[in-house]
């Protein structure tokens, strides 16, 4: 959208006038100021538009921007003087009478009745607005409250006003008098209270919805730290209060609020310091639009040039505000209500083409517009003099070549249909009402004043316009609109309006404004309250161990599921590392497996040697079946190492301990049996010894069987009462899940070990005692040595076992199994093998016997 902001910004000029004029003329003393000598009191007339009709609509419209009243003693007038005609507001007046004309021309609408109007300019001042209401109701210049001087005037309802400031007092009066009212611009939320204002309607939405939209907009851009500049009056306070509520609900914090006073108390240094020192680059403007508000803003121009301003609907609807300072308002965001309804019809265009001071010579405002915007002279020399003085422009004779449509507000882009809609809705309602009344009785209608029932009809009115949308007021008497957000950009005196969402916005310095108190916390961090009380200011702290946050600006971290653990960035959970001795992927496993297999092969070789030399004396000595059993059990214990590798499951956990307990029990009890056999053999060598009958396989086998069965009973009890099971240990190492076997019952485990230890200890003691006994081939000293090794391995294993975790525990166990089995294997069998293989001469009965005879005890 393109538009022209004229060089003649009436607001800017008026400020100049007020400042220049009010001060020097105040004392009534003679002055150099030419304005002080002007006397326009005789020419001044109120801005009043009247058209008589069967039914009349009252109108309180803001046409002029400013009322200079007796409280501000101005040199040239000492009563109420409205100045500052605005093209935009004139457009609203035009819409008003265009709507009335359309209805009167339409035969189907209000048949046989004409609609009239009586309109006054409120000049944006509540006192003037209230006065206008009484003027309309009395029908005279001088208002007479509660009295109509003009006979049977049928005022049905009122349209007006633009600002909340003027609308609220009118609404209070009209509510008492029972008149319905449709405002075309007041957005004050308090007007939605149906109990206080039952007859009030509006063709705009109340501010709360725009605050809601504003909150969403700020959220969208991630602007959570904003400043607010508002007017220091009741409506400014209320707006601020509502706005804060919506901002807080979106989690947006307010860095500062500055309230701008009117002329009487000047904007303090404190306030400017706040704005200068603020860190946010987004400032929201709300409150009442006034000249002084804008004037005060210019005190902080240098800082506002760096900030992006967001204007509430109130200010945004007023393009004069935006045009006031193109540098400040450049790249600002502006809220504008969006209607599904436009006035750019051919009838409207031809109506506008005819709108000229020559065709409407009595239209005072139109004349003003021509003077201000087209710089044309009027008929009235006093007025010409005043306007030349106020607007600092030379006026000239115009010949009628200027058109109203040359002004931006009279082009389709700028038209907003609030006033037209208000008049249209009221006339439709009057029509409906009239139709129902005439059905009842024509006579009644004559007497009826329409007034007291109009609001009932307005409440329930629903009608479809020809081009689609349905019009109705919601339960709060509001007409629901969309919110359009424009990004304004000034270039070469033109304003370019970009609708946010349709095109990419332009920013000051071409960078997206930043409005945050603290930088966002990345995933992996959480917000921690900082020293400032504001929730938008925070520090970012890393999530604690085991916790993650996967969104930006997380307020808290949460724990990963049990089986998962944070990744390095702490922004998502990953599966924990599993800790167990696996067959693959582990150097230790490879080492264990190869040593286990190597030992197993050695064991096999020894067994092979023993079987090959089965009948040789050295194998036969010391009970070869026990040796065989011992070899086999050692072999099994080498193989049992395989159960300790791999991911433990319940069944391997059970098998591990049982296999280990049983094979070792067999081994140790074989050793014990061997030792006992050495004793018995020694005793039996004495002639006539009663021990002789014990020599033999039977005793040794039953001994092994007996010792083994005790171990089996222990194991079975353990398994049946509290068997080992797979256990997942999540707590020992962070980020690791230790998959291990829980022994189930520690008593069971230690009973198995303890029993084995007992057997080993007994074997050791016996073997130690028997180590010097003479025998054909005394194994006792080897057994002593191996049992010593065995016991020391298992005794050292216990503290190591208790102090390690996870796969290290398993390594300790495997190490203990391998070393103790290997010790047993090597100590017991290597010497024999050595003799068998390398000293075959010693492996003869004669040698063994001879040795015996050579070594008498
Ligand atoms: C309008 O006036 C005409 C003539 O006076 C009359 O015939 C007609 O019925 C009136 N229409 C309505 C709706 O009152
Ligand atoms: C206004 O006038 C009506 C009748 O014209 C009267 O009934 C009412 O009491 C008056 N109200 C006030 C406040 O004077
Ligand atoms: C405008 O026209 C009037 C009468 O035609 C004439 O008296 C006056 O001097 C003209 N003013 C200018 C500024 O041309
Ligand atoms: C407004 O801002 C735009 C973009 O930063 C820049 O191009 C333009 O010149 C500015 N206009 C004025 C009037 O400063
Ligand atoms: C963050 O994690 C939660 C829980 O794991 C999950 O539901 C959510 O989808 C995640 N959000 C993102 C943005 O990854």
UniProtKB/TrEMBL annotation:
Pfam family name, one: NCD3G
Lipid bilayer topology: Multi-pass membrane protein
Subcellular location: Cell membrane
Listed GO CC annotations: plasma membrane
Domain of life: Eukaryota
UniProt keyword Transmembrane helix present: yes
A GO MF label: G protein-coupled receptor activity
Main location: membrane
G-protein coupled receptors family 3 profile domain span: 588-852
Residue ranges of the TM segments: 273-295, 590-614, 626-646, 658-682, 703-725, 745-770, 782-802, 814-838
Entry protein name: Vomeronasal type-2 receptor 26-like
């Amino acid at each position: 959208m393109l538009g022209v902001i004229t060089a003649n910004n009436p607001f800017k000029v008026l400020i100049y006038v007020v400042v220049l004029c009010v001060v020097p003329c105040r004392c009534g003393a003679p002055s150099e100021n030419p304005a002080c000598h002007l006397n326009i009191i005789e020419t001044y007339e109120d801005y009043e538009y009247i058209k008589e009709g069967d039914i009349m609509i009252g109108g309180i419209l803001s046409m002029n921007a400013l009322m200079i009243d007796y409280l501000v003693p101005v040199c040239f007038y000492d009563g109420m003087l409205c100045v500052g005609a605005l093209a935009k507001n004139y457009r609203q007046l035009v819409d008003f009478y265009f709507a009335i004309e359309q209805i009167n021309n339409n035969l189907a609408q209000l048949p046989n009745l004409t609609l009239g109007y009586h309109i006054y300019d409120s000049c944006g001042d509540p006192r003037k607005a209230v006065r206008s209401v009484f003027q309309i109701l009395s029908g005279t210049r001088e208002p007479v409250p509660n009295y109509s001087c003009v006979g049977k005037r049928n005022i049905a309802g009122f349209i007006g006003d633009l600002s909340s400031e003027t609308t609220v007092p009118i609404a209070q009066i009209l509510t008492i008098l029972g008149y319905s009212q449709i405002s075309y611009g007041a957005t004050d939320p308090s007007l939605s209270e149906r109990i206080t204002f039952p007859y009030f309607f509006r063709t705009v939405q109340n501010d709360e919805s725009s605050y809601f939209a504003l909150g969403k907009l700020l959220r969208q851009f991630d602007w959570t730290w904003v400043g607010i500049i508002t007017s220091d009056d009741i409506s400014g306070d209320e707006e601020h209060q509502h706005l804060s509520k919506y901002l807080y609900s979106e989690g947006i914090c307010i860095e500062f609020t500055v309230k701008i006073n009117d002329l009487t108390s000047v904007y303090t240094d404190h306030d400017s310091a706040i704005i200068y020192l603020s860190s946010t680059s987004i400032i929201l403007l709300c409150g009442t639009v006034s000249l002084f508000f804008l004037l005060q803003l210019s005190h902080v121009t240098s800082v506002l040039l760096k900030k992006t301003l967001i204007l509430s609907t109130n200010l945004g609807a007023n393009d004069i505000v935006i045009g006031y300072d193109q540098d400040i308002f450049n790249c600002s965001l502006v809220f504008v209500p969006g209607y599904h309804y436009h006035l750019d019809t051919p009838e409207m265009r031809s109506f506008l083409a005819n709108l000229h001071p020559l065709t409407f010579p009595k239209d005072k405002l139109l004349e003003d517009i021509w003077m201000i915007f087209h710089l044309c002279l009027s008929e009235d020399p006093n007025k010409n003099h005043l306007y030349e003085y106020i607007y600092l422009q030379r006026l000239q004779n115009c010949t009628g070549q200027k058109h109203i449509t040359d002004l931006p507000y009279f082009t389709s882009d700028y038209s907003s249909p609030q006033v037209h809609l208000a008049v249209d809705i009221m006339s439709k309602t009057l029509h409906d009402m009239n139709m129902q009344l005439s059905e009842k009785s024509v006579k009644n209608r004559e007497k009826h004043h329409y007034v007291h029932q109009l609001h009932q009809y307005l409440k329930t009115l629903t009608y479809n316009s020809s081009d689609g949308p349905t019009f109705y007021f919601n339960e709060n008497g509001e007409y629901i609109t969309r919110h359009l957000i424009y990004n304004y950009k000034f270039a070469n005196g033109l304003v370019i309006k970009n609708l946010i969402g349709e095109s990419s916005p332009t920013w000051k310095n071409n960078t997206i404004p930043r409005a945050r108190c603290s930088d966002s916390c990345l995933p992996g961090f959480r917000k921690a309250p900082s020293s400032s009380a504001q929730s938008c200011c925070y520090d970012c702290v890393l999530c604690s161990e085991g916790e993650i946050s996967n969104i930006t600006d997380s307020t808290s971290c949460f724990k990963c599921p049990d089986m998962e653990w944070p990744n390095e960035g702490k922004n998502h959970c990953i599966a924990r590392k599993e800790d167990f001795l696996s067959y693959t992927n582990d150097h230790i496993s490879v080492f264990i497996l190869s040593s286990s297999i190597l030992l197993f092969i050695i064991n096999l070789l020894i067994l092979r040697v023993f079987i090959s030399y089965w009948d040789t004396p050295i194998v036969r000595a010391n009970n070869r079946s026990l040796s065989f059993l011992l070899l086999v059990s050692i072999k099994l214990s080498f193989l049992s190492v395989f159960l300790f590798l791999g991911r433990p499951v319940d069944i391997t956990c059970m098998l591990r301990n049982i296999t280990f307990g049983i094979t070792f029990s067999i081994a140790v009890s074989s050793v014990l049996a061997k030792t006992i056999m050495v004793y018995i053999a020694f005793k039996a060598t004495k002639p006539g010894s009663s021990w002789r009958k014990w020599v033999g396989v039977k005793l040794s086998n039953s001994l092994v069987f007996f010792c083994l069965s005790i171990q089996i009973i222990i194991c079975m009890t353990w398994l049946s009462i509290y068997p080992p099971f797979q256990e997942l240990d999540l707590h020992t190492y962070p980020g690791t899940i230790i998959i291990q076997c829980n022994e189930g019952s520690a008593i069971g485990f230690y009973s198995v070990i303890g029993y084995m230890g007992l057997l080993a200890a007994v074997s050791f003691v016996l073997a130690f005692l028997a180590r010097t006994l003479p025998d054909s081939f005394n194994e006792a000293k080897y057994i002593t040595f191996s049992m010593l090794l065995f016991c020391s391995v298992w005794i050292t294993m216990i503290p190591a076992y208790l102090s390690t975790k996870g796969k290290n525990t398993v390594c300790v166990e495997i190490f203990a199994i391998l070393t103790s089995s290997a010790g047993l294997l090597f100590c017991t069998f290597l010497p024999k093998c050595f003799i068998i293989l390398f000293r075959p001469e010693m492996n003869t009965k004669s040698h063994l016997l001879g040795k015996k005879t050579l070594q008498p005890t």
